[in-house]
Amino acid sequence: MKTTVIEFQNFMQHKVGHIITKMAQNKVLQSIQQGMIATLPFLILGSFASIIVNFPYTPFTKFLKVSGLYAFLNIPYQLTMGILAIYVTFLRQRLLVRKMKLDRFYRQLCLCWRY
Question: In degrees, to the nearest 5, what angle opens at C-alpha 15 toward C-alphas 11 and 21?
Fold first, then answer.
């Protein structure tokens, strides 16, 4: 059993490891990764808003709806989760243009082209 695990680890390190290393150095994949990481603050904010608005305690949710706080607290959720794809696209393109060291005009042109 141990030899099988060791053989598998050796295979992964020698064969697959080189491919993964080359992929990790790709500028496009790095910009996608960093763009997704940059959206984490938006995801956290939207998640907290969603937890508060959809709290599983009926009297609390009734209070939020009666007092008008439900609509107010639902705004952060809609502004983060509702347009998350736009955030990801913008940040990914911005980081890609920076990595390729393109000028500002070209950056704006690329962003407009994406939409």
Answer: 125
**Residue 56 DSSP label:** S
Place of tokens 């070209």: 106
pLDDT, tens digit, 9 for 90 and up, residues 29-63: 888 888 889 889 988 998 998 898 888 899 998 99
Six-digit token string for 30:
């790095």
- The CA-based angle 43-70-48, given to 5 degrees, is 25
Count of the separate structural domains present in the chain: 1
Beta strands in 25-110 (DSSP E): none
Q: What is the pTM of this model?
A: 0.66
Which range marks the domain in which residue 33 is found?
Answer: 2-114
Closest CA to 31 of 101, 103, 81: 101
Helix axes 69-80, 40-53, angle to 10 degrees: 150
The alpha carbon of 90 is separated from its chain's Cα centroid by a whole number of angstroms, namely 11
